[in-house]
Amino acid sequence: MQIRRIRNTEKSIINDIVSIHLDTFKGFFLTFMGRGFLNLMYRSYVEYKDSGILVAFEEEKPVGFLAYSGDLHGLYIYMIKKRLILFAWYSLGAFLRRPAVFMRLIRAFLKPAESKREEEYVELASIGVIPNMKSKGVGTELIDSLKAQVDFNRYAYITLETDAVGNDSANHFYKKNGFVVEREFETNEGRKMFEYRWYII
């Protein structure tokens, strides 16, 4: 298996990443926003400084990905400045299907500003693996690759958020990979969440 950071010219791989996301996160908010919205979002991760996407390849086929950012606030500003009209177009479609999505979308774009901290950190924003490769170590290899490339002279830790309830396999996975629960909180939608952090020893 090969893992590497992809370039913004590899648009077909970004399409594969979106497909993996749709298979991995069925029923989630970003999945509801649709393929076009996700494509714009993941393209922004690849383009923006201090952000990126690691992709795991098996026989040159993408089988998993990990999106991350060392400047989530700046990334979201970049998304809005670079692709506001396109994001608005795809958001309109989601709004017409489910009007309640509007406030959720606003909160999603405000979240990076709300989570700013004194120290710099890397946010593991999304990780997904194709169904027939789950439990084969792909996710762990992706996380290990992220740990290896983060400059811990600059960043204090890697963090992520995931559901605290009904999410046993994901919580077990993150704990197995050395993440520890920093805090538990509840979203505006009533979802109980864990924030995990990983510090270099």
Question: What's the structural blueprint in terms of helices and strands?
Answer:
Blueprint: E1 2-5, H1 11-24, H2 29-33, H3 35-47, E2 51-58, E3 61-69, H4 72-97, H5 101-114, E4 122-129, H6 138-149, E5 158-163, H7 168-176, E6 180-186, E7 192-198
Helix pairs in contact: 1-3, 3-4, 4-5
What would you say this structure looks like, in words?
The protein has 201 residues and is α+β, with helices and mostly antiparallel strands. Helix content is 46%, strand content 24%. The chain is built from 7 helices and 7 strands. Strands 1-2-3-4-5-7-6 form a 7-stranded mixed beta sheet. Strand 2 (51-58) and strand 3 (61-69) form a beta hairpin. The longest helix has 26 residues, at 72-97. It is globular. The two termini are 27 Å apart. The model has no long low-confidence stretch (mean pLDDT 86).
What key phrases describe this protein's structure?
single chain; 201 residues; 7-stranded mixed beta sheet; alpha+beta; 7 helices
**Average pLDDT metric:** 86
Alpha-carbon distance between the two ends: 27 Å
Based on Cα principal axes, name the global outline. Answer: globular
pLDDT < 50 stretches: none
Instruction: Give, in order, the helices and strands.
Output: EHHHEEHHEHEHEE
Q: Level of helix content? A: 40-55%
Given the helix and strand composition, which structural class is it?
A: alpha+beta
- Main sheet specs: 7 strands, mixed
Strand content: 15-25%
Please give the radius of gyration in angstroms: 16 Å
Sheet with the most strands: spatial strand order: 1-2-3-4-5-7-6
Tally of separate helices: 7
Total strands: 7
